[in-house]
Every structure is written in structure tokens, then in C-alpha cells.
């Protein structure tokens, strides 16, 4: 069954990006601390044109998510690199560059119609019909695998509010950002979660949460 | 060495109490969800005049903290039951009743001078000299064990800001409260944490964090 899942790194104080995001610093101040756990991993390096890296339990968590993903849905801001003036430019280049790491069809939720693009193994489709339309297209393209929600926080909140997210895996980094973009914000109703797996290393705790009906 | 430690239950969205605390509901709305993991445990029941309960890995985490504690420091609001009009009454009874579960000396940080009280095995001393004085008295009374910071969030923040907290163990409940009292709020400078142990069960993840110097 094609499920909608989301893997996202979060600080202990609940932020998925630091304060003062810019095009040069799309994760905000100190936001890179959220992702320190991932840069050293073999599966991440392989996707980003590198080699080597560690093949430990954290790497297996990442590899498992990548293997299970048949399509990606992401927000306009995620595609073009955080919030800022450039987001008003509907033709802004994606910050993923000419070799995006996805290797599966990507669907960008946007208000601006735009022709699809193909870069290396990745086709990027811009969907103007809303989050349900994007999910529907992604499901059709996922070949029976999961649709992975790439973020940002606002899009995750929209899918949570619509009751469309099946699973959330939070990669909890033991850092405090003190400000920035909160993952759990703007939720319109209670969301019930069930921890279905927790794995931990010194650098990150992977919390896999099934989304249940609200209580 | 006597260290200052803190065990506290927190929701995934960072709250240690729900919204709208009252004397009848000192944990706020849905705040009891933070502590669901603990009520079933043998060590908790034993401390609260009950019997039976489970003796699983969660129970061992709790028992370990209780064994290691030689004295407790808590805030005035924690002593009298959350925020609210009653906190203006300096003689309000502690909401712990006549059989407080601590069984070690308790030091309450308050602005109101008050005579010490002894209830069962617990002596309660009211300290008006500030957080450092309370910690000093608690250390002297702890018999070489740890001083445990009982909360609430405001007092934890004061000790964090003063650089006096050595270890924080967050019991992370897989629930969203959507509002209430945040643990990581009002921090005056970056706090660097190091995860020194993570244990998890389906109902709670125990994150033990050493507090390092700010980066």
C-alpha cells in the first residue's frame, strides 16, 4: 500500500529550521546542527555524489527510508530554499542544483504553473491543484512504494491537518536552536501519535510515529 | 560527587504541562498524557502508597533516578500545584498532601519565609535566598547522592541559565499537547547538550542529556 510518510530532523526544542533563514542559509542560524547526524552516512553521501561514509545503524535507518520511497512531495519553499524574497520568483531555480538527490519523481506544491523539469534521474512536476492533487499524482508515480513528504514544516502541517499523513519519522537531534520554524505548529486539531519504533545513537534518536485518528 | 539532575516528562511538541492549569488540574489540559508512562510502574506506585505495578525497563529508569536522589529542589508553584491565584497565598498547602513521595529532604525556592515542615519521611525547607542557596542547602543534605530538580519549567530554566544543571533526563511522551508550558523557553544563551543514554519503550523515550558549556 502506498502510504504518505515524512522523515524530518527536529531539535529537542521542536524546531526543524533555525531563525533567520536566507537563501544562503536555508536552514537558518545553527540549522545545520539538525543534520549533523546525516552528513557522515554512506547512504547520504552516495545520494549527493560522494563516496565512503559510515554504514552504521543510523545509515540503515536512512537507507530504509530511501529504499521505501517511490515519489516525493515537497513545498515551494523547500524546492527553492527556505523562506525569503526569492520565493516570490516563480521561476527560481531549485536549490537542489543539477543533480538532485531524489532519483524518484518529485511533486512540488505551488501556486505558480510551471513546466515539468527533468534533471538526471529526477523528474520535477509542479502541482497547482493543492495538496490532495499533489499526493494523488505522487501516489500514481510511486510504483507501490511510499510517498515521502519532503517538507517544509508548513506543508507537513497542512497534510497533518488534512488527516493525510500516515507516518512521521522524527530524527531528534540533541540540540537546542532557541528559535526558528516549529514542526508542530498551526495544528487545527489534536493529533494522536503512536511510537512504533525508536532507535537511538549518540548523535540522533529516530522516532517512528504512526498517525492515529484524533482523540 | 553531588550533581544537580532533573527528570522531567515532555511532549513531542516540547510542553511539560498543558494549557489552562488550575489547582484542580495542575498539569493543564491533557497534561496527564505526559505521565501515562509512569503511573503503571511499580516504583511509582510504591512511592505513592500503592502496590503492584510493572517492573520493566521503564520502571528501572525511574528506580535508578529515585535511588540516586539524596535531596530535591522545587519551585514554589510546583510545591503548591501549578500556576494560579493560589500561588499568591504563601501558606498554601503543598499539593503533595500528608504523605509526600520524596522521602528525602525537599527544598522549595520561594519569596515567602516559612517554617520548615516534616511530613512522614520528608522534611520540607522553604528557601528565600535564591536558587544557588537552595542548591547549596540541598547538596549539604543529599549525603553524596544527586540533588534532583523537581521543576517546574521556570525553575529548570533558571538553573539552566545559571549554568548549574549537570544532567537532564527527558522522558519524551509521544503526544502533542498543542499548547501549555514549554520546557525550553526563556533560555538566555545557547545550551549544549550531549545525549549520554537513550532508552525507549512504546510509551516513552528516556533521553539522558549531559549539559555542556555553551558553544
Structural account:
The structure is a homodimer of 215-residue chains. Chain A has a single domain (4-212), classed as Dihydrofolate Reductase, subunit A (3-Layer(aba) Sandwich), CATH 3.40.430. Helix content of chain A is 22%, strand content 30%. Chain A is built from six helices and eleven strands. Chain A has helices spanning 36-39, 42-47, 57-68, 76-80, 131-141, 153-161; strands at residues 4-11, 15-17, 69-75, 106-109, 117-119, 122-127, 146-151, 167-173, 181-182, 192-201, 204-212. In chain A, strands 5-6-4-3-7-1-8-11-10 form a nine-stranded mixed beta sheet, with helices on both faces. In chain A, helix 4 (76-80) links the parallel strand 3 (69-75) and strand 4 (106-109). The model of chain A has no long low-confidence stretch (mean pLDDT 91). Chains A and B meet through strand 10 and strand 11 of A and strand 10 and strand 11 of B.
| CATH topology grouping of chain A | Dihydrofolate Reductase, subunit A
Strand line-up of the largest beta sheet of chain A: 5-6-4-3-7-1-8-11-10
Which geometry of chain A do the CA atoms define?
A: globular
CA(first)-CA(last) distance of chain A: 25 Å
Strand content of chain A: 25-35%
Question: Using CB atoms under 8 Å apart, which protein chain pair has the greatest interface?
Answer: A-B, 29 and 29 residues
Discrete helix count of chain A: 6
Number of strands of chain A: 11
Q: Name the CATH architecture of chain A.
A: 3-Layer(aba) Sandwich
The percent range for helix content of chain A is: 10-25%
Q: What is the class of chain A in the CATH system?
A: Alpha Beta
Low-confidence stretches of chain A: none
Q: What's the pLDDT, averaged over the residues of chain A? A: 91
Taken together, the total number of domains of chain A comes to 1
